[in-house]
Amino acid sequence: MSDIHIETLISIDPSNDETVGSVVITSPAILAQKVKSAASAQASWGKRPLHERSRLVQQAYAALEEAEESMALLISREMGKDTRRAGYEASGTLHGGRYLAAESAKAFASQRLAGNGEIQYRPLGIVGVIAPWNYPLAMANNLIVPALVAGNSVILKPSEETPLVADLLVNILNETLPEGVLQIAHGGGEVGEALVKSNINMIAFTGSLQTGRDIMASAAPQLKRLVMELGGNDPMIVLNDADIFAAAQFAVASSFENAGQMCTSTERVYVDEKIADQFEKAVVSIASQYKVGSWRDSRINIGPLVNKKQHAKVVSHIQDALEKGATLLLGDSFSEKQKPFSPFIQPTVISNIKPTMKIESEETFGPVVAIDRFGSVDDAIARANNSIYGLGAVVFGQSAAKKVARQLQAGMIGINQGVGAGGDAPWVGAKQSGFGYHGSMEGHRQFAQVTVINH
Ligand code: NAD
User: Does the pTM of the predicted model rise above 0.70?
Assistant: First the structure.
């Protein structure tokens, strides 16, 4: 009998608690082997010409076409996303990966200096990519692609909630990529922490603020390079000359996107008291049309919350707000404690929120539109900025919208629309929503060692 203990990680469908499948958790010994082979694979990968690395990564992503539907289905099964959104994510992974592989190559080409010499963008070595579950492919992708094209090898540690779809991604990419250049390590936070502390050179992380702080501490002794895309508590300000219907539509769509589990979803809305009645009425009317249920039902647009812990957090934020005097305009108050557990949260609209409520001060990550009214725009701006986070912020209105936007403390700001310019724009958080960033020439170059040579 062997005394080798193999631990498995079981992936569960949050809509019905069924087992989707399982993977073997990466033990410390196997992780050490992966790091060793990532180092030897990197030595030759990093020497290949830049255009060849870019071409191979593009080819690898093109091969994902055959698996687009399987990837979408696994996203839904593992984390509950409705099938339409899961389809967008799978197709975005394939097309976005190819685009990024071509674009990022431009950032790593050596540049001649005006005097004598040049700037080179050299590989850093091994990059540990640590990903969340809410966009399990898209978030990993944004970090894997520039890391590989820069000439690094990558070890991906996907979320423990979504290991199977990550396996599928890595297996297909590896049909094209040289052996050892892209590997996967499975498990929870302890495996992520072991990866951060291992002999790697950079951590590219997307996830919560608390994990970001832990990673920063673990990375400190060797001063490992970091790119961290963290949580948010995005505000929206609705000015008195805003298109009320458009603003209400955005507030609902953004608060409910991915069942509210999106880093840049609208978490709190401040509306001018002059239009607040009309705005709240429109929000409730639009929100009531949303359909909640299992991803198996193609008509739904809000799936289950990813797990019981996340569900309990959203419920506790709703209860805390109602206990402290907020008004429930739509949804469940969760006042009957004996109800059988359901992984779903009905579309919820709450008004009269206050800074002392968790729903205003923390990231809720659920399908809730949380609103308060303001009398002075300066107060609304102060409240919007009263957060340790600074990922996104949105303002709806006409004459003063740009002036308000200039005063908002966030990495990405939308005027009469959502945040994130896409294409070659950076994806970036301010304050404690991030450290470093990806996307854009400057973002891609964070995956490389900038080296100046004078001659
Ligand atoms: P999380 O921080 O709980 O987990 C993210 C990953 O980190 C997982 O793979 C987890 O296993 C790993 N991990 C946990 N502890 C670790 C440790 N000590 N060391 C190393 N790795 C560790 O986050 P989550 O619940 O998976 O994702 C939701 C969060 O991600 C939200 O806060 C959301 O706002 C944020 N997010 C941010 C962005 C962005 O672009 N800024 C995008 C998506 C999600």
Answer: yes
